[in-house]
Amino acid sequence: MKNATLRQLKVFESVARNLSFSRAAEELHLTQPAVSIQVKKLEDHAGLPLFEQLGKKIHLTPAGVEMLRSSRLIIQQFKEVEEAMTQFKGVSGGKLNVAVISAGDYFFPRLLVEFARCHSGVTLNFGVCNREELLDQLANNVTDLAIMVRPPLDMDTVSEPFAPHPYVIVAPPDHPLASKKRIPVSRLAREPFVVREKGSDTWNSMEEGFRGHLADLNIAMEIKSTETIKQALIAGMGVSFLSAHTVSRELQAGSLAVLDVQGFPLMLHWYVVHRKHKRLPPVAQAFKSFLLNDGAAWIEQTVGFSLKR
């Protein structure tokens, strides 16, 4: 193993975590053949197969399980060295690792631009993912900061709210309910709903918003893409429960409308989250302070949408 490289270990770890060469290639911005070559080189160094294929799925061999454990320790040690060196660089010249749930990609790039404008030389490593992927990044120390709506309750984390996050019921502007006031949930439940998939942050928020009455809704379709849901609504396929931040442009353009439903909007918050004992580099500490002090104002300015209780 003395000739194995850190690159090979990182590629192997990604394949082992995803149990997929193609997903690892996408995550690492490599071609699938390049990923396969790196794994094959590591197997040659180990003298043992690290994966086996059963049907269409790959699995770790016993040697692969041990290699994964050791690889993560080595990768973590290199990351700690990198973070220690970053401490000497301060904010300028530091690397900011931050990830956000998909609803945040409508405004988060603007926040990053404003932060970088005030801190020259900062390198940005920014990812958008679903809740499950975001929690996985936190657990595996892949990201310094995570931006989400529901901080994990079963992880040792620090979570601080920095901006309101309203959820609304939306429909096309010519929908029969668009002109109604104080619509009862019982009336709304008869409408076909086009919603995000179970387990998504939006689905979890919808469960909270309907307070145990989710089973009463007429859920016509589950779609993983918020953009596709919006197009489905514009085409007249029904109504939906979505983050107000994701539909602000359509509301301003008049292609969607917020329904006046009793008990809505549901007002939640954006949180900045990190591991409790994580030694945040100066650039991450500075960005966290930026969010806590100015994040709400920048979000409102960026999306052009505000709901007050």
Question: Which helices and strands occur, and which strands form pairs?
Answer:
Blueprint: H1 6-18, H2 21-28, H3 32-46, E1 51-54, E2 57-60, H4 62-89, E3 95-101, H5 108-118, E4 123-129, H6 131-139, E5 145-148, E6 157-171, H7 185-188, E7 192-195, H8 201-209, E8 218-222, H9 226-234, E9 240-243, H10 248-253, E10 257-258, E11 266-275, H11 282-303
Parallel strand pairs: 3-4, 3-5, 7-8
Antiparallel strand pairs: 1-2, 5-11, 6-9, 6-10, 6-11
Helix pairs in contact: 1-2, 1-3, 1-4, 2-3, 5-11
Quote the beta fraction: 15-25%
What order do the helices and strands follow? HHHEEHEHEHEEHEHEHEHEEH
Strand count, sense and barrel status of the largest sheet are: 7 strands, mixed
Number of helices: 11
Gyration radius, in Å? 22 Å
Task: Please summarize what this structure is.
The chain is of the alpha/beta class and 309 residues long.
Question: Notable features of this structure?
Answer:
alpha/beta, 309 residues, seven-stranded mixed β-sheet, 11 strands, two-stranded antiparallel sheet, 21% strand, 11 helices
Model description:
By secondary structure, the chain is an alpha/beta fold. The longest helix has 28 residues, at 62-89. Strand 7, helix 8 (201-209) and strand 8 (218-222) form a beta-alpha-beta unit. The mean pLDDT is 90. The protein contains eleven helices and eleven strands. The relative contact order is 0.14. It has helices at 6-18, 21-28, 32-46, 62-89, 108-118, 131-139, 185-188, 201-209, 226-234, 248-253, 282-303, and strands at 51-54, 57-60, 95-101, 123-129, 145-148, 157-171, 192-195, 218-222, 240-243, 257-258, 266-275. The radius of gyration is 22 Å and the shape is globular. Helix 1 (6-18) crosses helix 3 (32-46), helix 2 (21-28) crosses helix 3 (32-46) and helix 5 (108-118) packs across helix 11 (282-303). The strands form three sheets. Strands 3, 4, 5, 6, 9, 10 and 11 form a seven-stranded mixed beta sheet that branches. A two-stranded antiparallel ribbon has the order 1-2. A two-stranded parallel ribbon has the order 7-8.
